[in-house]
Design a protein that fits this description.
With 290 residues, the protein is an alpha/beta fold. The protein has 7 helices and 10 strands.
């Protein structure tokens, strides 16, 4: 019987990951934690066969968790997979340097998640000592099967990464061509991408990828970002507001538009800012359209 430990500070994500992990094998044991420190405490007493962790967490990121996980004597060879919504290669490199075996992008492709997780569990069981009476041929068969799985998964993963990069580049180009300040945030209001024009409304830099947007300096007079975002996530309806700038004689029409995976799963929002200075005289700033 395999055991899987899941670490993610977001309750919804933990439920999804736990549900998926419970289907990996018959009688698989799944333990989920929102706090990496609690997970490490449990792991020191109960060695898992697979660790699955989110990358961005407030108490400890996924790379640091894996680094500490590898220091547990019985966990040096236990497979670890990182779930991340960020496509920046630096996140993957940091996780791999810390000892991660694999990573998967969020929002999750459920079939891909199961395939990659089963591959890592197969690796774990192939590396564990074989029961008495089992010979080398069985182990070699397992190794051949595992190598075949790795080759197929690597090819599929690289194809998906290529497609994601192309889609992202095309969308970025479209937004930049429009001249509209725009940015993408995930379901926790953390910055994913932004256009160069976003500098008119937020003091954003490359170091802010993964940072909560409400912690980034905003050039507009706008104190209801978190409230509006949560209302949009709750209702599924876009939010629009007219907002004045602190730094220039300008007004912007803000739109928070929900984005969904598969048409149902909420995964964040696109936030755009249209300069409407020429036609806001008849409207009062901070007036909500909804």
């Amino acid at each position: 019987m395999s055991s899987v430990v899941i670490v993610d500070d977001q309750g919804v994500n933990r439920k999804v990951l736990t549900s998926l992990a419970s289907t990996l094998e018959p009688d698989v044991q799944v333990k989920a934690f929102g706090d990496p420190w609690q997970a490490l405490s449990y792991i020191r007493e109960h060695t898992p066969d697979l660790l699955i962790t989110d990358y961005q967490m407030p108490a400890m990121n996924g790379a640091e968790l894996i680094r500490r996980f590898r220091r547990v004597p019985d966990c040096r060879d236990v497979p670890a997979m990182v779930v991340t919504a960020y496509e920046d290669m630096a996140y993957r490199a940091t996780a791999l340097d810390a000892g991660a075996n694999d990573f998967i992008l969020s929002p999750l492709d459920h079939q891909e998640f199961r395939l990659q997780s089963r591959k890592l569990l197969a690796l774990r069981h192939a590396e564990m000592p074989a029961p008495a009476g089992e010979g080398a041929p069985a182990a070699l068969d397992q190794l051949d099967l595992f190598n075949s799985l790795v080759e197929n998964l690597s090819a599929n993963l690289m194809h998906k990464i290529h497609n994601l990069k192309r889609i992202g580049a095309e969308l970025q180009t479209l937004l930049e061509a429009s001249g509209t300040p725009a940015l993408f945030v995930d379901e926790a209001l953390r910055v994913r991408h932004f256009t160069p024009h976003a500098a008119r409304v937020y003091a954003l830099g490359a170091q802010d990828i993964g940072r909560p947007l409400h912690e980034v300096d905003c050039h507009l007079i706008y104190g209801d970002l978190a409230r509006d975002f949560h209302e949009m996530a709750r209702t599924g309806e876009s939010v629009e507001r007219y907002l004045p700038s602190r730094t220039e004689a300008a007004h912007f029409l803000l739109r928070i538009i929900p984005t969904r995976h598969g048409g149902t799963e909420f995964i964040g929002a696109l936030i755009t800012f249209t300069d409407v200075s020429a036609w806001t005289d008849a409207r009062s700033p901070e007036t909500s359209l909804h």
